[in-house]
Amino acid sequence: MESTDIVSRDKLVADLKLVVSDAEELLKITAGVAGEKVAAVRDRMQKGLEQAKVKLVDLEHKAVAQTKAAARATDTFVHDNPWKSVGIAAGVGFLLGLLIGRR
């Protein structure tokens, strides 16, 4: 898994948490508003928020599990192929040095 996928997933989770928090605040603010339609909308929103929270927790757990699996796979590769890993790291460092040196 690429790091951009992990960053995108983390940003999505953070954004969804913010939306859930804002929706909860909206529900609290409108608690005193009377009316049958308002009550129905509030109930639907409350149920939707509860489902969203459960899905967010599940998404976070999956993201953590995938990140740990990627870290374990990398660790295993480095331990199984130490010289190849050193060569790859040296090559990446060399290329980064060339790119930085051009500026």
Describe this structure in words.
- The chain has helices at 3-29, 36-80, 82-102.
- The protein is mostly helical and 103 residues long.
- Helix 1 (3-29) runs antiparallel to helix 2 (36-80) and helix 2 crosses helix 3.
- It contains 3 helices and no strands.
Quick recap:
This protein is mostly helical.
Give a topology summary.
Layout: H1 3-29, H2 36-80, H3 82-102
Helix pairs in contact: 1-2, 2-3
Q: Give the radius of gyration.
A: 23 Å
Through-space gap between termini:
30 Å
Order of helices and strands: HHH
> Sheet with the most strands?
none
Strand content: under 5%
Low-confidence stretches: none
Q: Total strand count, please?
A: 0
Count of DSSP H/I helices: 3
Shape: elongated
Average pLDDT score: 83
Helix coverage percent = over 70%
How many domain modules?
A: 1
Structural class: mainly alpha
Entry keywords:
single chain, 103 residues, mainly alpha, 3 helices, 0% strand
